[in-house]
Amino acid sequence: MIQGISNEAFILGCSAIGAGLALMAGIGPGIGQGYAAGKAAEAVGRQPEAQGDIIKTMILGQAVAESTGIYGLVVGIILLFVRPLLGAL
Fold first, then answer.
1. How far is residue 89's CA from residue 79's CA, in Å, rounded to a whole number?
2. Are 14 and 2 a contacting pair, CB within 8 Å?
3. How many CB atoms sit inside 10 A of residue 51's CB?
4. Is 2 helix (H, G, I), strand (E, B) or coil?
5. Domain formed by 26-88, architecture
6. Of 33, 36, 72, 85, which alpha carbon lies 20 to 30 A from 8's?
7. How far apart are alpha carbons 87 and 89 in whole angstroms?
8. Within the chain, how many helices (H) and strands (E) appear?
9. DSSP 4-39
10. Which pLDDT tens digit goes with each residue over 30-89?
11. For residues 28 and 6, what is the distance between their CA atoms, to the nearest angstrom?
12. What Pfam families does UniProt report for this protein, alphabetically (predicted)?
């Protein structure tokens, strides 16, 4: 172990780093959803009669893309507040 740092403090620090990395998983879905919404707006502008189908498809795609961001958020919350790695000590 590193001198001056207890095992518990080391694990909590590594858990905080892991939570930060897990929360960075929300960046990709945010960019993708914005891009998809922009393309859907373009498609509705070109074909206003297909607005219902375009919006349904866009919302389904955004729901699937959002799930990865939610998984990252859940993992980050578990690492920060449940602290499952402290039980291994």
1. 15
2. no
3. 13
4. coil
5. Up-down Bundle (1.20)
6. 72
7. 5
8. 3, 0
9. T--HHHHHHHHHHHHHHHHHGGGHHHHHHHHHHHHH
10. 999 999 999 999 999 999 999 999 999 999 999 998 998 999 999 999 999 998 888 877
11. 35
12. ATP-synt_C
Q: Structure pTM?
A: 0.75
- Planar angle of CA 64, 67, 68, nearest 5 degrees: 110
What is the per-residue DSSP string for 47-87?
-GGGHHHHHHHHHHHHHHHHHHHHHHHHHHHIIIII-GGGG
| Residue keyed to tokens 């590193």 | 2
Give the gyration radius of the chain's Cα atoms: 20
